[in-house]
Amino acid sequence: MLQGYRTHSHVALPQNTPDRMTLSILTWLMLLHCCCFSSTFGSSSEQYANQSICHKRRFQELSCSSLNLSSVPNYLESGLKKLDLSNNFIQTLNKESTASLGSLQELDLSFNRLDLLTRSAWRNLVQLQSLNLTGNNLDRNRKRNSAALQSLKSLKVLELSQNNLNSDTAALYLKNMSSLEHLGLARNKLTTLSSELFHQSPTWRASALKTTSLWKSTREPLRV
Ligand SMILES: *[C@@H]1O[C@H](CO)[C@@H](O)[C@H](O)[C@H]1NC(C)=O
Ligand SMILES: *[C@@H]1O[C@H](CO)[C@@H](O)[C@H](O)[C@H]1NC(C)=O
Ligand SMILES: *[C@@H]1O[C@H](CO)[C@@H](O)[C@H](O)[C@H]1NC(C)=O
Ligand SMILES: *[C@@H]1O[C@H](CO)[C@@H](O)[C@H](O)[C@H]1NC(C)=O
């Protein structure tokens, strides 16, 4: 329902195609319609959300979980170490929304609608050590997502469970992730895990293979 307005870009034109003039007017009308529709779209609380709707847990820890957010709140304070954005409807993060998050160490984005990780946004997270992406749609936009993940140089904990990932996509995402100590891949569509994947770092190989969530996904390849 939240993404319903997107379908408007696929409106079919009548079969008896009108002349160019009418066509361009039609196009403008459609554009206008889309703009108006999306700007009034959503409840006001999510459209203009800023940090005031979140809960301060501790010093440098903020929870914005389960607030029906469709984007990261504006004006997040700088210096945050932990940010919980789980259980919302966030589809992507832009670079403005992460600009103040250079100190962030833990980010929970589990159960959102993420399908696109853009490098420009993610490379702001220079100190990120733990990233929870459980329950998103990261089977899409593989190349761009991979590039974004590669930019997280300090990452130790990565949860990619329940993203409908196949073996190839998982391999792509985990390429060069030699700093990882914990990896969650449960409930994806993995059938094989390439030994190449574990070739790069012996310490990671050892610790990753111990994680129960990884084993679960290989034993139960068809459970999504
Ligand atoms: C944050 O939102 C509240 C209401 O939702 C508003 O009163 C306040 O001015 C906003 N703060 C900033 C910095 O925009
Ligand atoms: C989120 O949306 C659901 C369904 O519309 C509603 O019941 C719930 O109260 C909303 N939660 C918040 C925090 O706005
Ligand atoms: C990631 O999020 C899921 C769902 O919210 C939770 O069950 C899991 O423990 C989290 N993993 C980590 C490493 O925090
Ligand atoms: C990944 O690692 C390979 C060799 O292990 C290296 O050639 C390549 O440049 C690395 N890519 C990135 C994006 O770091």
UniProtKB/TrEMBL annotation:
The keyword Signal applies. It holds the Pfam family LRR_8. PROSITE patterns: LRR. Residues 1-42 form the signal peptide. Gene3D superfamilies: Ribonuclease Inhibitor. One of its GO terms (cellular component) is extracellular space. SMART domains: LRR_TYP. Keywords: Leucine-rich repeat, Repeat, Signal. The keyword Transmembrane does not apply. PANTHER family: AGAP008170-PA, INSULIN-LIKE GROWTH FACTOR-BINDING PROTEIN COMPLEX ACID LABILE SUBUNIT. This is Transforming growth factor beta activator LRRC32-like.
